[in-house]
Design brief:
Elements (H helix, E strand, L loop, with lengths): L17 E6 L7 H14 L4 E6 L1 H8 L3 H18 L6 E5 L4 H11 L4 H5 L2 H9 L9 H14 L5 E4 L4 H19 L21 E4 L28 H9 L19 H9 L3 H13 L5 H24 L3 H33 L13
Parallel strand pairs: 1-2, 2-3, 4-5
This protein binds adenosine-5'-triphosphate and magnesium ion.
Adenosine-5'-triphosphate binds next to helix 1.
Length: 369
C-alpha cells in the first residue's frame, strides 16, 4: 500500500512544522493502526519534524494493576514503529512518563474544560462501553482526554495523524488551544484557526489527519480492529498467522462458489480494497464474485493474504534484527535519546505557557542519566 502524500505546509516558515501522534502501550500494533495513522507517520517524516509518543501513563487508566504488561508493550511498540519504517534518525520517539511538562500542562488544561464537556466525548463513551469499564472506572480514565490535549500541545504541532475514533479527542484539543490563547495570550476569540499563533497565541490549532482508512474493521467483520477484541492482525504476525486469521473470516453469508456473492457485506473485500494495490485486480475479483463466476471465498482470501504479507514482509525483516534483550536495549536507547530532545521542546512550550499565565518566575532544566 502506498502511504498518502503529506499535506501541504501550512506556514511559510522555513523551519519544519511539527507533527505529533502516538499509541497507548496496551498491546502490539495491528493493521488498523497502520492504515489509520502509522502509514501517514512514515510518509511525513521528511517534510515534518515528527514526534511519536508512547502514552504509557495513559495505559495505566485501564491497566493500573498490570505494570509489567505496560512495560513490555512499550518496548514492543517501539519495535513495531521501527519495523513499520519509522526512522529514529528522522523522527523523535517520546516516552510520555519522562516528559514532566505534559503532566503539568494537563493540570492547567483541566481548568479550561468543563467537566461535562469531557464526559460528553463520544469516543470516551464508546470506550467505556467496549472496554466494559462499567461505572467503576478510575477518575484518571476520563482525565486521559485532557492529558491527550497536553501530549499534543506540548509539541505545538500542526498535524496529528490519527484514526477516525480520535477525531473527537482532537476536537477537544483544538478547543483547549483556542481557550488558552484567548484567555492568556490576548488572541481575539473570532480569529481564524490558522492565525492563532500569528496573533500571539502560544498554541497553534492542530488538525487531525485521518489515514487512508479511518476505521479498519477487525477480522470479526463488525468491530473496529482493536488490540483488545481478539480481532486484530498484528504487524508482527507470521505469514501463517495472517493466513489463519483471514482464512477464518466469515464472508457475510453462506454461499456456493457458483452463486452470486455480495461484495458489500463481505468484509474480506474491505481488506481487498485496502491492501491490494492493483485496482484492476480488485475490480475483477469483485466482478466475478458478484456474478458467481466460479470464484470462491478462498480465492478472494488468498489474494488478500498475499497482499497483506507483501506489506508485512519488509516489516518482519526489520523486526528480525530487533529480537531478544539486545533489541529491547536498543529500543530503550532510542526512546531515551528521543525523549531528551522531546523534553527540550516540551519545556520550551511549558515555559511559554507559564509566562503567558503570569507564572514565569524562573527557568529550569530537565536532565537524564
Ligand atoms: P486501545 O484499545 O488500547 O484504545 P487501540 O487499538 O484503539 O487501542 P490506540 O493506541 O488507542 O489503539 O490508537 C492508536 C492510533 O491508531 C489512533 O490514532 C487510533 O485512531 C488508530 N487506530 C486504532 N485502531 C484503528 C482501526 N481499527 N482503524 C484505523 N485506525 C485505528
Ligand atoms: Mg484507542
Amino acid at each position: 500500500m502506498t502511504p498518502p502524500p503529506p499535506p501541504p505546509e501550512s506556514s511559510a516558515s522555513s523551519t519544519r512544522r511539527r507533527v505529533l501522534t502516538g499509541d497507548t502501550p496496551t498491546g502490539r500494533l495491528h493493521l488498523g493502526h497502520w492504515v489509520g495513522s502509522v502509514a501517514n507517520r512514515v510518509a511525513m517524516q521528511d517534510e515534518y519534524d515528527c514526534f511519536f509518543l508512547i502514552a504509557n501513563m495513559h495505559a495505566f487508566t485501564t491497566r493500573a494493576d498490570k505494570p509489567g504488561e505496560i512495560r513490555e508493550s512499550t518496548i514492543e511498540i517501539v519495535k513495531d514503529w521501527l519495523s513499520a519504517g519509522v526512522d529514529p534518525e528522522r523522527s523523535t520517539f517520546v516516552l510520555q512518563t519522562e516528559v514532566p511538562a505534559i503532566a503539568e500542562l494537563s493540570w492547567f488544561f483541566s481548568m479550561l474544560i468543563p467537566f461535562n464537556r469531557v464526559m460528553r466525548n463520544p469516543t470516551l463513551k464508546t470506550e467505556i462501553d467496549t472496554k466494559g469499564l462499567g461505572d467503576t472506572y478510575p477518575f484518571g480514565f476520563p482525565m486521559y482526554t485532557v492529558g491527550q490535549c497536553a501530549d499534543i500541545l506540548a509539541f505545538r504541532p500542526d498535524w496529528v495523524p490519527v484514526g477516525e475514533d480520535q477525531v473527537a479527542h482532537i476536537e477537544l484539543c483544538r478547543e483547549v488551544a483556542r481557550k488558552f490563547d484567548v484567555t492568556y495570550c490576548g488572541v481575539n476569540s473570532k480569529a481564524e484557526d490558522e492565525d492563532f499563533e500569528k496573533e500571539g497565541g502560544v498554541f497553534p490549532i492542530p488538525r487531525a489527519l485521518v489515514g487512508k482508512v479511518g476505521r479498519l474493521v477487525g477480522t470479526d467483520g463488525t468491530n473496529k480492529m482493536s488490540k483488545s477484541l481478539n480481532n486484530a492482525i498484528f504487524l508482527s504476525d507470521t505469514p501463517k498467522q495472517v493466513k489463519k486469521k483471514i482464512g477464518q473470516m466469515y464472508p457475510g453469508q453462506s454461499r456456493e462458489p457458483t452463486e452470486p456473492g455480495n461484495v458489500e457485506i463481505n468484509p474480506v473485500f474491505g481488506y481487498a480494497d485496502t491492501f491490494i494495490e492493483d485496482e484492476a485486480q480488485v475490480a475483477e475479483l469483485k466482478d466475478r464474485y458478484r456474478k458467481g463466476d466460479n470464484l470462491g471465498d478462498g480465492h478472494v482470501k488468498a489474494a488478500v493474504i498475499e497482499a497483506v504479507n507483501e506489506l508485512l514482509d519488509p516489516m518482519r525483516e526489520r523486526r528480525a534484527a530487533l529480537e531478544g534483550p539486545e533489541g529491547d536495549a536498543k529500543a530503550v536507547e532510542i526512546l531515551k535519546a528521543g525523549t531528551a530532545r522531546a523534553n527540550e521542546v516540551a519545556e520550551e512550550t511549558l515555559a511559554m505557557a507559564k509566562e503567558a499565565m503570569g507564572l514565569g518566575f524562573w527557568g529550569r532544566r530537565i536532565t537524564s542519566d
